[in-house]
Amino acid sequence: MSKRLTGINFNHSFIFFLSSIIISLIIYKINNLIISPLVCLLLILTIGVSHGSLDHIKGKKLLKIINIRETYIFYLTYVALATLVLIIWILAPSISLIIFLIVASFHFGKEDTQFLIDENSSFYQLLFFLKGLLIILAPAFFHFNETITIFKYLLIDNEFFYSALEFIEVNKILYISIILSTLSYIYLFLKNFKIQKITIFFDYFSILILNYFLSPLVAFTIYFCFLHSIRHSISLIYEIDKINFENGLKIFVKKALPLTILTGIFCLIGLYLLNNNYDLNDSILKMIFIGLASLTFPHILLEYFLEKNEK
To answer: Less CB within 10 Å around the terminal CB: N or C of the chain?
Structure first.
């Protein structure tokens, strides 16, 4: 991986770490300062979603590799997968949530780290999963009841599911999982050590600080938009123009804007429809997490097949 890209990500991670401390303390100290779920949704629909808004370009690239000329096949497949996820979630929300959390853990762990790691063995895949697991575990570790409330908003009414979560909390399984995740950070940091790998611990402490001081929704929004999404966007900008980052940024914005706007419109329409049956905050939580799940699966599959076929 390019030293320049690694340096950009290092600076971004350091700034995010400092910002996490400042923002967390400000929000924590001002007891009456409540971040509306609507603000979280708008951030995710703009900054968050934009990091996947070049998927149509990647899709065309994949079709070209596998010798398929009809570009509409990509769009139909992508939309069909997203719709299928929504249908499966409605029919089996508990199973869908568990699968989504597992897939998201691996995705976050890999995407946030691969600019530092050249290895791609099964062992490193496990390390990526354990590293990304911290994003999923930290909210439950620091705010267990609030996390359970969010799950209930996501159509989860399975008593066995909540009994299992109670078992996990009572038997300190969360502690053990946090320790395993921490060990993965330490290993990735020490293996083939170089100073830029301090980025790994900037990220680690940022996630813990955000989740300790802030509500699960706000902590996740800040992480997803300003660490995960921006980091992924940086790699896309670098791919567009490896020499002139500013030029790459301009091209990225132009290419990402149409799909970002389209996704935002569909989400707002969905929010309007949901609001006919649920209150606004309930509808927003459904839109954020179930909507993200529907976009995440085709996004990850595209990345996987593109990486596999390019090799």
So the answer is: C
* C-alpha span between 263 and 256 (Å, rounded): 11
Q: Maximum CA pair distance of the chain?
A: 58
- Residue 38 CA to residue 86 CA, distance in Å, equals 21
262: its two tokens: 């389209």
Using an 8 Å Cβ cutoff, are 295 and 260 in contact? no
Fill in the amino acid letter for 8. Answer: I
pTM given for the model: 0.91
Helical axes 3-29 vs 216-223, angle rounded to 10°: 160
Q: What is the spatial distance between Cα 37 and Cα 35, in angstroms, rounded to a whole number?
A: 7
Which amino acid would we find at residue 259? L
Q: Is 62 exposed, middle or buried (0-12, 13-18, 19+ CB in 10 A)?
A: buried
Rounded Cα distance, 101 and 147, in Å:
13
CA dihedral 126, 132, 136, 137 (to 10 degrees): 70
Give me the pLDDT at residue 32, please.
61
Q: How many domains does the chain fold into?
A: 1
CA-wise closest residue to 53 among 245, 304, 261: 261
Q: Compute the Cα dihedral for 173, 111, 26, 289 and give only its sign.
A: negative
Distance CA 222, CA 279 (A): 24
**Angle of helix 72-91 relative to helix 55-65, nearest 10 degrees?**
120
The percentage of the chain sitting over the pLDDT mark of 90, rounded to a whole number, equals 51
For residue 18, pLDDT over 70 is answered with yes
Give residue 301's domain range.
Answer: 3-310
Name 248's Cβ contacts closer than 8 Å, sequence gap at least 6: 237, 238, 239, 240, 241, 242
Q: Which two tokens stand for residue 310?
A: 């390019």
In this prediction, residue 243 carries a pLDDT of 86
CA distances from 172 to 95, 129, 237 (A): 23, 20, 42
